[in-house]
Amino acid sequence: MSHVKFKEVLVTPEYAMRMLQGVETYDFTNRTLNCRQVARLSGAMKDGRYNSHNGETCKVTSEGVLVDGQHRFRAVVESGVAVPMTIAFGVDLDAVNTIDDGYKRSGGDTLLIRMGLPNPKLVAAIARLAVSYATDPEGGSPLVSRILREVVDNDLIHTFVIGDLSVVTTASKLIKTVPASLVRSRSLAGFAWWAYAQVDEVAADSFFQRFGKGVSLTEREPAYVLRERFLREGPAGVHRDRARQLFYLFRAMKADYEGETITRLHMPPGGQPTLPSISVAGVV
Questions:
Q1: How far is CA 6 from its chain centroid?
Q2: Residue of higher predicted confidence among 114 and 87
Q3: pLDDT(100) > 70
Q4: What angle do CA 188, 275, 164 make, to 5 degrees?
Q5: What is the torsional sign of CA 21, 30, 41, 105?
Q6: What is the pTM of this model?
Q7: How far apart are CA 106 and CA 65, in angstroms?
């Protein structure tokens, strides 16, 4: 039976590297490193956003092997920032099977607990996409694939929503206006609505009212062409391809904003949303 002791340790890049190398020396096989998760944690550490006093621990066996915390330790190395962490020393090696076996809090859980918002899961999903879109590192029109795969932590989602409550309003309007049978991924439609509203809120509301309800539409009108495309392909078509769905939404919105008529929607290889990147206050 092991005797676990808890200690707060200032994890420096040098200490983190020694512990990571110790895992390799002991020939313990940790789970595959998620480089995007490391980058996310490293960025939070550099920006001073990383909260190490949330009760979570890293875990080290009596043999000195780090069995829980490789992403946090690797992030310390990558960031070059020393971070205080609570470490549980003396954990049984067999206990690794039960580590991280609980239910992970989602962004929606965070918004519900901290703000009591309606539709928290949808709001969080829209906010995650909005953060990715608004913080495009290269500027210009961000790639669809980058927006969809970007990892955004719950704290940043919470900060974003506090700074831009229009995300909450958008989610509420979307549920009332656009049926799930038309746009299976409501988070993508909600994000598109939010992005269009940053340019012209009145035009955005009008576009999604017409698209969602199918009233007052004429052929070649972008909202009509988008609606017909989604209805024609159904669940087996565009709904299964999030990148294509997002591109079609942005292409139709751009045409609507510019007063352009269209006859079809087609995403060329490497297609991306054509609205410009949006700089949002409070998000770096």
A1: 33
A2: 87
A3: no
A4: 60
A5: negative
A6: 0.68
A7: 30
